[in-house]
Specification:
It is built from seven helices and no strands. The protein has helices at 8-40, 42-50, 52-61, 63-66, 69-93, 98-119, 125-164.
Length: 165
């Protein structure tokens, strides 16, 4: 009935999988938003060049002045694609309970964005709520897709071995 202890090295790999996945998600969101904003959207660049105070002021009053809807949805799409890849990464690097790691990362992201939404000014809450739903779901979809591919590959190898033997 007693479970054998998990070796410290395995627990370290598990921790590194979860923590690096969280960091990758936040960094990909920042890179997508600022990359798109500074290269393709002059109104974002105008507020960015004006300084952090100007950008914070417009983000708390009317975020669509600095981040137009096309830029926002493009950044969400790019980050969601990155989250699909992060789901793949979690499944490939988790030392045990692969999908449980993906669920854990998705729950932590959900809580992170929920806390951010609570602290955000009312004008910015909608953006954070979209992040709170889309990014954890994309991680779970990427993880499930990876697991399904691994299962199908294993089943086809089993069938091939039965046909040969």
């Amino acid at each position: 009935m007693l479970q054998e202890p998990i070796p410290p090295g395995t627990m370290l790999r598990s921790f590194l999988t979860v923590s690096s996945s969280l960091v990758l998600t936040v960094v990909s969101s920042i890179v997508a938003t600022f990359g798109l904003g500074l290269t393709c959207f002059p109104q974002f660049k105008k507020y960015y060049d004006a300084g952090d105070e100007a950008l914070q002021a417009v983000m708390s009053n009317n975020p669509s002045d600095a981040i137009p809807p096309l830029m926002f949805w493009s950044a969400v799409l790019l980050t969601a694609v990155a989250c699909l890849a992060i789901g793949y990464y979690i499944i490939k690097t988790a030392p045990f309970s692969h999908f449980a790691h993906a669920i854990f990362v998705a729950v932590l992201l959900f809580i992170y964005y929920l806390q951010t939404a609570i602290a955000d000014p009312p004008a910015k809450k909608t953006m954070t709520l979209v992040y709170m739903i889309v990014f954890p779901m994309a991680i779970l979809i990427g993880a499930q897709w990876t697991i399904n591919r691994m299962v199908r590959k294993h089943e086809s190898e089993q069938a091939r071995m039965l046909d040969e033997g």
